[in-house]
Write a structure and sequence with these properties.
By secondary structure, the chain is an alpha/beta fold. It is built from 12 helices and 17 strands. The strands form 4 sheets. Strands 3, 4, 5, 8, 9, 16 and 17 form a 7-stranded mixed β-sheet that branches. The radius of gyration is 21 Å and the shape is globular. The two termini are about 15 Å apart.
């Protein structure tokens, strides 16, 4: 089969590689669509490498080239002999993580027992930790990792179940954190009334919608974003105030809109260093800070001094953990897919770029994602 192989930092080659074999409990998926994620860009550019050996040391791409892609939708092309609940032709989205439940490992580790599948003691991940990802014609995964679509949904939109699943898991983690302030708290003195989302990329726009449409948050919601088009999308999805961080100090603008108090809840969804540096001036004391974005290049850790002084509850979730359905399928991916299918969360407006072949991926990751009109790109193979 054809696959995008990341041979070295910044260099992808479309190569012929062996088509994966299907085990008795597996399915072979013909890839339909793959979202291009910031994590892919970080690995491509050499700013991150999650493929490590048993001692935790990074394995270089020169020693182990990778196939990226973890936001995946596809069609079942083959089923293993023991699979009874999926059939050839079923349209599905995929949980890219392998854990105790999906590999049927017993006894399950403490993390899988608590529903934190992305922290599984034996965790591996297609497209991220070295296992082949979705930027290929086919991928084989345990059948329990494939969640069937129940509506006539565009497969580009279906692929974004994975990033929405991460937003759901992050929001659940914040709810469990028991900070001073909480969305919808019964005690009005502890209720979140002022929110700032840093970044209006796909994650920021998903967080915005999830707050408004799923959690029912109807108080002040601000979004900081330097891109004009993305600020417009934030307004469309329900932001009360949109701030341009390139036109002035974000913290000062936040304090102005909050009458000097700062926000109760800050979601850092940009991964930009300057956004991270603005946290301390934007939050009130003992606010909740959700660190979702990765990257933050160009800042030094001393900026944490002023953040720590305010005693925030800092939450740093990763992935789309959230327990398992009775059939072993991931609950969070199922929740995410249904929200998109039922129109509760809208992703179509910010899918701005469609890449029609594996050959387009190099250009997308090498600079295409930096275009002024780019919000989210999806590689479409069907």
């Amino acid at each position: 089969m054809k696959a995008c192989v990341l041979c070295d930092v910044g260099r992808i080659e479309v190569r012929d590689v062996p088509q994966p074999r299907v085990g008795a409990r597996d399915v072979l998926l013909r890839i339909a669509a793959v979202g291009i994620c910031g994590t892919d860009a970080h690995i491509f550019s050499g700013h991150a490498n999650y493929n490590t050996d048993s001692s935790g040391k990074n394995i270089p791409l020169s020693a182990h080239p990778q196939i990226l892609g973890h936001e995946i939708s596809g069609e079942v092309a083959e089923v293993g002999g023991e699979v009874r609940d999926l059939a050839v032709g079923d349209r599905v989205v995929m949980d890219q993580g392998l854990n105790c439940v999906s590999t049927q490992r017993e006894p399950r580790c403490e993390y899988c027992l608590s529903g934190d599948s992305h922290q599984c003691a034996f965790y591996t991940e297609h497209g991220i930790t070295g296992l082949p990802g979705g930027l290929a014609e086919f991928i084989a995964v345990p059948a329990s990792n494939a969640v069937r679509l129940t509506a006539d949904l565009d497969m580009r939109e279906a692929a974004l179940s994975e990033p929405l699943g991460c937003v759901i898991h992050s929001s659940d983690a914040v709810a469990r954190a028991h900070g001073r302030f909480a969305i919808g708290a019964a005690d009005e003195g502890r209720r979140v009334r002022r929110v700032l989302i840093s970044g209006a990329g796909p994650a920021g726009l998903l967080f915005l919608q999830y707050l408004r449409r799923v959690l029912g948050y109807d108080e002040l919601l601000m979004v900081s974003e330097p891109n004009e088009m993305k600020r417009g999308l934030a307004k469309k999805f329900g932001a009360d105030v949109v701030l341009d961080p390139s036109s002035g100090e974000v913290g000062a603008a936040v304090r102005e809109h909050t009458k000097g108090g700062g926000v109760d809840y800050l979601i850092e969804a940009s991964g930009q260093g300057h956004a991270f540096a603005a946290i301390s001036s934007s939050i009130r004391k003992q606010a909740t800070v959700l660190l979702y974005g990765h990257g933050h290049a160009g800042v030094e850790l001393s900026l944490l001094n002023n953040v720590m002084f305010k005693e925030p509850t800092m939450v740093t979730p990763v992935g789309a953990s959230g327990g398992f359905e009775k059939d072993g399928r991931p609950s969070t991916y199922t929740r995410a897919l249904r929200l998109i299918e039922h129109g509760k969360i809208s992703v179509r407006p910010f899918i701005t770029h469609r890449f029609g072949s594996l050959g387009d991926v190099q250009g997308a990751l090498a600079g295409g994602m930096n275009a002024a009109d780019y919000v989210k790109g999806v590689v479409v193979l069907q």
